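stage 2 :: seqdesign
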C-alpha cells in the first residue's frame, strides 16, 4: 500500500510539472487572424471546413495574400478529406519581416520580404503548412522560395512529419508548402496558373 502511495504521488507531481510548463510573458506571439474578421469572401453554404471561399478567377499575383491562399484552396481540386483536415480550426498567421522569432519558427531562418501569411490547421492529424510570401521584388522570389524550402522543418509537429516540401515562385510571390505529396502538388500547379 505504501508503494502505491509513492507511485500515485510521483505521478501527481509529474503531472503538475508538465501542466506548469508553458510560455513566459517574454515570448512574442505572431499575429493570428480570425478568418471571420473581414469580408474577403463568403463561407460557402454547407461547407464545414472553416475555409473561406474565394473566386480564383478574380485573383492576380497582386491580390492580397489571404485571398490568394483561399483561392488556391478553392481552385486546387483537393481531396475533400484533405481539405477538411486543413480546415479544422484553420488559422492564418501574419509574419512580419522584422519578427525574427516567428520567421525562425515558421521558415527555419530569417529572410527579407514585404509580407507573409501562413495557413495551418490548429488541430490536425496530418502535417501541413502553407507559407505565402511577397518578396521584395520578382527577381528575388525564386531564390527566396529555394532557400525557405531548404530551411523549413518538415518534422516541426510533435507526432507527424510532412511527406514533402515543395516551393514555387510566381512574379514576386513565393509559395512553400509542407504536406501530402499529391495534394501539395495540386496547390503548386494552381499557384503557377495565377496571372
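stage 2 :: out
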Amino acid at each position: 500500500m505504501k508503494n502505491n502511495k509513492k507511485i500515485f504521488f510521483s505521478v501527481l507531481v509529474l503531472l503538475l510539472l508538465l501542466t506548469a510548463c508553458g510560455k513566459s510573458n517574454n515570448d512574442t506571439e505572431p499575429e493570428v487572424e480570425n478568418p471571420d474578421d473581414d469580408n474577403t469572401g463568403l463561407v460557402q453554404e454547407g461547407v464545414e471546413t472553416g475555409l473561406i471561399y474565394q473566386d480564383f478567377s478574380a485573383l492576380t499575383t497582386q491580390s492580397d495574400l489571404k485571398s490568394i491562399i483561399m483561392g488556391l484552396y478553392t481552385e486546387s481540386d483537393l481531396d475533400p478529406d484533405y481539405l477538411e483536415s486543413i480546415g479544422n480550426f484553420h488559422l492564418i498567421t501574419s509574419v512580419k519581416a522584422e519578427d525574427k522569432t516567428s520567421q525562425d519558427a515558421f521558415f527555419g531562418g530569417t529572410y527579407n520580404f514585404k509580407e507573409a501569411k501562413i495557413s495551418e490547421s490548429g488541430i490536425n492529424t496530418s502535417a501541413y503548412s502553407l507559407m505565402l510570401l511577397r518578396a521584395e521584388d520578382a527577381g528575388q522570389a525564386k531564390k527566396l522560395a529555394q532557400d525557405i524550402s531548404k530551411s523549413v522543418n518538415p518534422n516541426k509537429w510533435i507526432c507527424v512529419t510532412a511527406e514533402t516540401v515543395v516551393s514555387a515562385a510566381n512574379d514576386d510571390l513565393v509559395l512553400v508548402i509542407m504536406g501530402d505529396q499529391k495534394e501539395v502538388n495540386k496547390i503548386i500547379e494552381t499557384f503557377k496558373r495565377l496571372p
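stage 3 :: structure notes
- The radius of gyration is 19 Å.
- Residues 15-49 have pLDDT under 50 and may be disordered.
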